TrEMBL record:
Homodimer. It is an enzyme of class 6 (ligase). PANTHER family: TRYPTOPHAN--TRNA LIGASE, MITOCHONDRIAL. This is Tryptophan--tRNA ligase. The gene is trpS. A motif ('HIGH' region) lies at residues 14-22.
Amino acid sequence: MPAFKELVFSGVQPTGNLHLGNYLGAIKRFVAMQAQYECLYCVVDLHAITVWQDPGELTRQIREVTAAFLAAGIDPARSVVFNQSQVPQHAELAWIFNCVARLGWLNRMTQFKEKAGKDRENASIGLYDYPVLMAADILAYRATHVPVGEDQKQHLELTRDIAQKFNNDFAGAIAEHGHGEAFFPLTEPLIGGPAARVMSLRDGTKKMSKSDPSDYSRINLTDDPDAIAQKVRKAKTDAEPLPSETAGLEKRPEADNLVGIFAALNDASREDVLREYGGAQFSAFKGALVDLAVAKLGPIGAEMKRLVADPGHIDAVLAEGAARAEAIAAPNIAAVKDIVGFVRRR
Ligand code: TYM
């Protein structure tokens, strides 16, 4: 595999409340990656419409996710911040990848099965095809690294399969057009840290999710300090004090989750947290967690509110980001079309 220029890409759907899982598993890590990499962060509105979205609400959510990116510390002067539908190359490459990906590969996707549920026949074709568009998002930029939460692992494996098959199927044309042995990198997922899978505050065996009917299951980025405090205090726990070693968190999903959240918010490890709070009762630990969560999330929520009050500014950031994104994607997609054998407009 030839060396590809290091580039980070990731995306977040503008569908409902952003929560602590989105922040700790993804957005907070996006911010940190800016120091080391050239990064593109995308509000994936084409993905959002794979399930019905009220149009006015979708517009609002696109701006809100953009505001969350900026409020969390993504610097739009450095990183490329944009929404997917403004860059036509995503949908264009997705079509070509539809003809590379195999039905059998998509049939294995667990997220489709979960989201479509029992009413599979009534799911949109877009929902089924969702992971192919995701591969196009990443590979339109030939991105080498993708920070995501654990739940996206299977989709990133599919992205690698598509890249590999394209590289193999078109090996001759790729070489002929001067791109060497491979046109697409085999993108590396970056899944990690203490909060790669943040769980529901009501049930430590279920993922924290936008679609959970109970708002007490999650902390939203826009929750005020009172709401954060109430949700943490009501979070499910068990009867034992915290252990001193991480081994003691096994089979204690709620304790493990709260310790993981504390660690991620504090840029620490579970070991660090237990060194300080091992032996503590949940009442004391939850008090410290409320203080920490309010200190870290409060300013982000407040800044998001300030930013969404000025949609003109957000839209300008997105427009500038889209132009920069397209400048990277357009030559890549033009090269893909040559490789596939299409005739270019001259
Ligand atoms: P989405 O919008 O569902 O979630 C955005 C990011 O948040 C992470 N995440 C979590 N991390 C830890 N614990 C949780 N409980 C939790 N819930 C969500 C997700 O893993 C994700 O990183 N398919 C993607 C969006 C996407 C994308 C892409 C991502 C579209 N194209 C290309 C990367 C690259 C999604 O639905 O994320």
